[in-house]
Amino acid sequence: MGAHAAQIFADEGAVVVAVSDQYGGVTNPAGLDVAELLEHVAATGTVVGFEESDEISNTKLLGLEVDVLVPAAVEGVLDEITAQQVRARFVVEGANGPTTGEGDRILAKNGVVVVPDVLANAGGVIVSYFEWVQANQAYWWTEGEIAERLEHRMHSAYADVSALARKEDVSLRDSALAIGVQRVAEAHEIRGLYP
């Protein structure tokens, strides 16, 4: 997930200043060449040792002054200790459960907007649903059609979640969970137990 996120950010014109994996991290305040970095990872199996970058520990990376931080691999990485070090304006949870409850409270207190995992990394689940629909209909969509449908679903979900968060003055996480519970309850009322 992290490699894809870095590539998307770079493709959209963002400056990717640091990345890490299980072996360590690399940083370059002027920006990393993500395409070359991905080639390096394919050749070596790690981001460590990438040219035109300095080494950085995974913990120090979490405290860099950046706009967006994407924890994309490890559960519970933003806890009561590491969350205090976060200086990003946004945390986009690419991993499942990268922020603990206490970490979430600290980030909220510090004004960091957290895009929760249930929203930020839902793409795989959505595409799995598309596969299920296609299999049931014996009809196949092109890769472009799937990408278009996925983009629409992700944008729509974020719009719904952010609108409720603003309206109710709650976090994006609380908003996403409230919408999820509401939709399951509505489906249960309409359909009964499934199947």
UniProtKB/TrEMBL annotation:
The keyword Oxidoreductase applies. InterPro entries: Glu/Leu/Phe/Val/Trp_DH_C (IPR006096), NAD(P)-bd_dom_sf (IPR036291), NAD_bind_Glu_DH (IPR033922). It holds the Pfam family ELFV_dehydrog. SUPFAM superfamilies: NAD(P)-binding Rossmann-fold domains (SSF51735). It comes from the Bacteria. Keywords: Oxidoreductase. Residues 1-192 form the Glutamate/phenylalanine/leucine/valine/L-tryptophan dehydrogenase C-terminal domain. Gene3D superfamilies: NAD(P)-binding Rossmann-like Domain. This is Glutamate/phenylalanine/leucine/valine/L-tryptophan dehydrogenase C-terminal domain-containing protein. It comes from Paraoerskovia sediminicola. The lineage of its organism: Bacteria, Bacillati, Actinomycetota, Actinomycetes, Micrococcales.
